[in-house]
Amino acid sequence: MKLDGQQLRALSAILRNGSFDSAAAELGVTQSAISQRLKALEENVGVKLVNREKPCSGTEAGRRIAAHADHMQAMEQALAGDLGIQVDGPQGRIRIAVNADSLATWFLDTLAEMPDFLYGLHVDDQDFSDDMLKRGEVAAAVTSNGSALAGCDVHALGHQTYVATSSPEFAERYFKDGFNAETVAYAPMLRFNEKDDLQFQWLDAHFPGKVRPPFHTVPSSEGYTRATRLGLGWGLNPLALVEEHIEIGKQVNLMPEAPLEVPLYWQVSRLHKALLAPLTRRICQTTI
Fold first, then answer.
1. Fewer CB near the terminus (10 Å): N or C of the chain?
2. What is the pTM assigned to this prediction?
3. How far apart are CA 173 and CA 252, in angstroms?
């Protein structure tokens, strides 16, 4: 099966922009041309690639093929650059899966030092980010999985430290008799989303029984930290985001003797190993 470059770029632009109109504007063609290219590509591969809704989204096959198109374009541009050849057209885009807390603390600083490509960052929990790598939707992932996936190299990055915190007022209201299984069971807790089991893992490690407090969901690392500071609930925050707040008394470390250390790894598809080698070197030098 031979895949046409223009058709691949049309698919990638549709999924990146969420509409045929915006994809046409990005590529400098008509909406009709975008529709024709996508139709031809779907007929070629024999499966539906785009869910035609608002915004447009990719089917599993569509996401995989679009990622392949992005990464191949980036590889071609890197090769052209090495050969001193000027390439016209949009830059290649490297797709990476990263957990929200890494994105909010160290990852962007590292990425900003490697501006040679456009990056498409896909946010998921560190326990699930490698799923996108397994499906071929990203070229690399920050993950908590230290076992190399099939066709990938894995690099240990260190540990991200989490501490249980709340506002002083929240601690006074709910934990005046101590931070223990009885008081924790009734104090509102924060979770990032329904996938987030970090708090439950930590509770199970430090309190007898299955303590399952009522909880809010706050799907933003910065919003989560602010919610604890404002007294909405208690939760496990990356130390890097709350250390200053603890020092000045805006947050309380509820169990200083019990930080949670989450190991992080950089998994890279061997197909894109050479392309991502400079970024891999820089990430492996980063202190989390």
1. N
2. 0.83
3. 13
